[in-house]
Amino acid sequence: MYIRKNNRQVDIRKKSWKIVLVLAISFMTVITGGYTFMEMNALAAPEEVSVQVQEEDEAAEEVERQEVSENEMILKDVVQEKEEKQESPLIAVDAGHGGEDTGCIGFGIYEKDINLQIALRVKRRLEERGFRVMMPRETDEFLTKEERVELANSYQADAYVSIHQNTYEGSDKSVNGIEAWYDGADESRDNERLARLIHQETIRSTGANERTVWDIADLTVTNRTLMPACLIETGFLTNKEECRRLSSAEYQEKIAEGIVEGIELYFYSD
Prior knowledge:
Largest sheet: 6 strands, mixed
Strand order of the largest sheet: 4-1-5-8-6-7
Distance between the termini: 144 Å
Helix content: 55-70%
Structural class: alpha/beta
Number of strands: 8
Radius of gyration: 47 Å
Oligomer: single chain
Number of helices: 7
């Protein structure tokens, strides 16, 4: 039997296949495009991460360089300060007597006061020249000779200079001038050179009468110190004219200048 085909059904089937084909092609396009997009992102991501890592590394290196630079500057300052301390001698400037111990007295003038005034001027001048200075006393206070020496030794001073005024107990009150004392029995310290240079320069700066440099070893401040030490008697309070000069600021400056010159020559002379 011959059966005639229904053309409408054939057309529907053809259209159905076309729709399926279009959908399949669209699906493949979406899949392919998505894959390409992910592939592009995957290929691009390492570059972006690499750039970010590089920037972070560079920032970290810059911070590290700054820290190193700051540390180097701090270290440089510490070394410089240490070198300055090592190169700058420490001088113990001892103002003799003090407090209840007035020392000698002349025409109403106490030795302890003149000693301190001169010692403070010596300290100022030494510091202006770059020396370091320690003073067992900087006010009108009493310290034993042993305490003064212990302080200087504990500070490990490089030189010790004790400042005093003289007195003459005889009838001749015209006796005047400058003299110095040191421990000549101890040859391990350069006491004599220190004493002679200070004596020499103080005579030069003041024009005072040049008296003896004594190598006496029985003074606590000169024979119990661990560093070179000397004692200078800058004048006689029993001499009225010299007492007047010793009380003046101008003459005290001349004495201080001479003492400082002697100390500087001791440390820095060729």
